[in-house]
Fold:
Amino acid sequence: MTQGWSAQDIPDQSGRTAVVTGANSGIGLVTARELARRGARVVLACRSETRGREAEDHIRSEVPGAEGEFRQLDLADLASVREFAAKFPYERLDLLVNNAGVMALPQGRTADGFETQFGVNHLGHFALTGLLLPRLRAAGAARVVSVSSGMHALANIDIGDLNSERHYRRWIVYGRSKSANLLFIHELARRLRAAGSDIVAAAAHPGYAATNLQTRAVRMEGRRAAERIVELGNRIVAQPAEAGALPTLYAATAPGVRPDSFTGPSLMMWRGAPAKSWRARWTLNDVAGERLWAASEQLTGVTYEAL
Structure:
């Protein structure tokens, strides 16, 4: 269905407004840049102002005349998420790309006391999407794209221990957070359909792409030898961020993307043109989706009006 699809195939985005979280580097930066290249006004939602401004300058240097603007957003702090949504300057939002994330970090907590990977990868984006939903509705046929991972196959969510308080295994917890991304999209798509909304909720994953996501944890722990090994793998084995961003860009812009679809690389979930990707059956479970949704509303204090 997507053979040969590339960034050159992105439809004209003129007149559309997009938000890309984690747009300061890697897949998020490429996604924001290519959307801007096709004429979208792109809001770069980043935690670091310094890196966000650098990304803004990079996009403008790569794409003369691009409409790209930085706005601060820390997904590890619900107060920051609420402030971002409250100060969002545009009446309509055509595209929300929930891209930012952390991977296999040492055990930690967000500003609100949530386990970091679950708090950033799922709860921050759950709150952001709900708070921006009125702007998405105003756009009509808007899209919400959440970036998950093939590593979701490591583990289903544990609804009784969402904050991993009983025991913490960093890769299992990461897998749970990525399964939560897919369950969120599944339940959001179901609720949008029931409400008769034209908003499309879809998911994507990049495969193995060379970004700083892989090196952050070992760098935090000061494990220089491990960091060098990861960097070597990124250079030799991984695909570049430009290729890793294609499934996200496809889900965000291609005609006919179906609600609750999951797009990834075509070759063994690793690299290649965007294609329908395998997903674990637990990410399509209605009961689990409802339970995660209810827990997320309770934890964040964000409810989705009329859904």
User: Anything to note?
Assistant: The longest strand covers residues 41-46.
